[in-house]
Amino acid sequence: MSRTYSRRHYQPSPPVENLPWWKSPLILGAIIAGIGIIGSTLWIEYTTQRVIHIRADDSSDSAEKYSLERQQHCRASIQQYKPGDVAITTAFADRPVTTQNISIFNSLSLLGQCNKAQRPIKNQQPGTSLILLLEDVNRLIKKERDRRNYNPVVVTITLQDTEPGPNQPPPDDQRLQELVHQITADQGTIMLMVENPNVNHQLRTLLTEETSAEICSFADISNCVNKAFEIGRKL
Prior knowledge:
Blueprint: H1 25-47, E1 52-58, H2 67-78, E2 86-92, E3 96-103, H3 130-146, E4 153-159, H4 173-185, E5 188-194, H5 197-206, E6 213-217, H6 221-232
Parallel strand pairs: 1-2, 1-4, 4-5, 5-6
Antiparallel strand pairs: 2-3
């Protein structure tokens, strides 16, 4: 029995053409997607409203033990900064003292200052004056307006207690309301983080009609600061 063998012809596979990387659809797609993500991020960053932030911390003798709260206030604020923001730092007790006034370029470089546990100022006289602080906040805002900085204002304050002492204004609810209203009326929002429950309740009642003023506790500092910036950047 004879067998017939067929001759098989093998066609060599065509050589695979190695495309230059800039012609590869996958690589080009990845590059375009990356550019899109970077572009959208830069656009959001560029269009974000810049603000003037005034951060004030109670540095009175009675607030000495609250260094962790002051540090938390510092870190939460710096994490919210964008290039072009103005950051003003104030310490207050029997009087307010501005300790820093800068334009933000690289906020991460500022985080180291939040590790300082020591109070920036100490009482010269007994007492803690919220009214003197708010008067100074309005002065700082006017100074920025005189420099033609018309960005919204975010004011965040840690306050252990209000204890007016010698040569300090006595408690005056009407004056306090007026000072807070001056801030909110000038494209501002104010967040008071208060440790003393009685003062916390008093300020809530007093400022109930100020929609851009809020009172919260020391237990919620980070969230309060974040909310203040969120409101301020939308003003």
